[in-house]
């Protein structure tokens, strides 16, 4: 399937070169529009954000694990508010510092023990495990056992893989559901499996919440009870439907939360570390910046310390630019006919923004294939200010999307990336394995991953 996505992108880019910045393909009952131009993306997503804020309805009748498809209509705003105002709000994200530190320490221990015999380490599985452990803690409010994390990972992967296999087939569902019946059935089975894994965790949290927050105990447990995503979902009232969410809907939303954050963040982390292994002078420069802030300390770098590291931020931004975890945004639905730069984008059309292409556009980025964090330190790109990754004033790249439907996990993702990259470089020197060059070839899965995952020597730094 990844070949189809890569092929689709290649064909679209050749169309763009011949036909101009907006391409409309008339598949199924409505048109599919592809936009690769920065300023048009800005006009659409930021200036006409409300019109571009819909999601196309799911064709498969399975309530795919997207807020958009499970709750098509206005409900997404309430759910989104729930995400951004509650669990992903900066103050809440900060309240999970202890969880981040716990996950980091487990990862450092693991890398240390694996590096003991000088064998090279395959890091991606560890990154995935770490990100999922962190998000699962935020989701269910508890540190889960190793085997529970593995079960969640397997169940999420099954859904993702069948979803990736069936997503392009959404274009003509009436036929594809018959022709590709086996794939549809696989998707349904994968979703049942996910329910079997997540529902016990949701019920366990519900029970705990009821017990701990029951009358009289509320005050006593207020300090030790840290709000989880499931808590906010259990409390949520859908005003239009005048009811709480049911278990299946909560499973969909938890799965979106876990999927949305796990793959994207660990993929980005792997790409960044791969570039630091490939370009040791960048790693060294980053280490020296960290050393300047940390001095002779042997401690873990704290979240507040990250604010003093501008080169670290540049490395993370360059990683997201050069290797955007997604090549396309999630599809947007247009709520009414809209004219963009003389082109009509029709109501109900599905609009896709070619995020990967924008970040590699030579009109905007000098020598775009090179990994050069310094470009984010130059005053040209920042206009003297911190680079605005939300694209609110101007879009130069949009790895998290832009406008009203921008990724609600942006703040959490940036913090996690900075925190993990900084600490991984602070505690270890990352070295190339003799005879194995770091291969930056891409492979399209749910995110764009390394075709040959990173293998590195991870050597503890002696202090
Ligand atoms: C490097 C990490 C990440 C990247 C590159 C990324 C990227 C994106 C992109 C491109 C979108 C689609 C925006 C659009 O439609 O225009 C999105 C949506 C979303 N992301 Fe992220 N994301 C990341 C991390 C996270 C994290 C940590 C979470 C939460 C725990 C998260 C949760 C979501 C959700 C729930 C949506 C759907 C929002 C909606 O439909 O309104 N993401 N993300």
Question: Key features?
Answer:
13 strands, Cytochrome p450, alpha+beta, 4-stranded mixed sheet, binds protoporphyrin IX containing FE, 463 residues
Write structural notes for this entry.
- The protein is of the alpha+beta class and 463 residues long.
- The chain has a single domain (5-453), classed as Cytochrome p450 (Orthogonal Bundle), CATH 1.10.630.
- The chain has helices spanning 2-19, 38-47, 67-70, 75-87, 90-95, 97-115, 124-140, 146-167, 173-179, 181-212, 218-221, 229-235, 247-278, 280-294, 303-306, 310-322, 355-358, 379-382, 410-427; strands spanning 22-25, 32-35, 121-122, 237-238, 243-244, 332-333, 338-340, 343-345, 350-353, 428-431, 442-444, 448-450, 455-460.
- A 4-stranded mixed beta sheet has the order 1-2-9-6.
- A hairpin with a 6-residue loop joins strand 1 (22-25) and strand 2 (32-35).
- Helix 7 (124-140) packs antiparallel against helix 13 (247-278) and helix 14 (280-294) runs antiparallel to helix 16 (310-322).
- It starts with a helix and ends with a strand.
- Residues 59-72 have low confidence and may be disordered.
- Protoporphyrin IX containing FE (HEM) binds at residues 67-68, 80, 135, 256-257, 260-261, 264-265, 268, 325-326, 329-330, 399-401, 405-409, 412-413.
